[in-house]
Amino acid sequence: MDKIYLVGLPGSGKSHTGKWLSHRMGWDFVDLDELIEKNEGKNIAEIFGELGEKGFRKIEQKYLNVTFSYKQCVVSCGGGTPVWGNNMEKMSRNGLTVYLNTELTEIERRLEESHVERPLFSQEQSLHKHISDLNEKRRPYYSRAKVIWNRNEPTEQFFRSLDRLLSIY
Ligand code: S3P
Fold it and tell me: Which of 85, 98, 123, 169 has the fewest CB atoms within 10 Å, i.e. is most exposed?
């Protein structure tokens, strides 16, 4: 198996961990949101604005399918990718799915500091409530990943365990 799919809530560290892992493994790093933005010539917020969430999810699925033909890469998914259609199942068939189960308080702290535009986060709802609602809805999908990492940061042991698993699958 020559691909890793990182899933988890926004702020769980998918991009940071993905870059770190790909560097350690000598593989490419693919950020699904960036792949979409580059190919569509629009940013994620613009796509949401023009097509709504449903339209965005179709485009997201199209580019996720594109990654299945890639070799030796770590893919950082969007927070909602696993929830749409049968994406989670397809990712698990094409690569090693890893759920970054970062603590919610840490996620909240990171998102408060982040300047990334996230269209699904509204002004009316507190960040705390939004994260716990998303977590409730998405946890059943994320939990189908083959690996669940229960720490806030990747470690050497994390890398070595994944490396071993990749040689078995
Ligand atoms: C989304 C998360 C975003 C991006 C889009 C939708 C979500 O990615 O794909 O705004 O539904 O949680 P990150 O998880 O990288 O923030």
Answer: 123
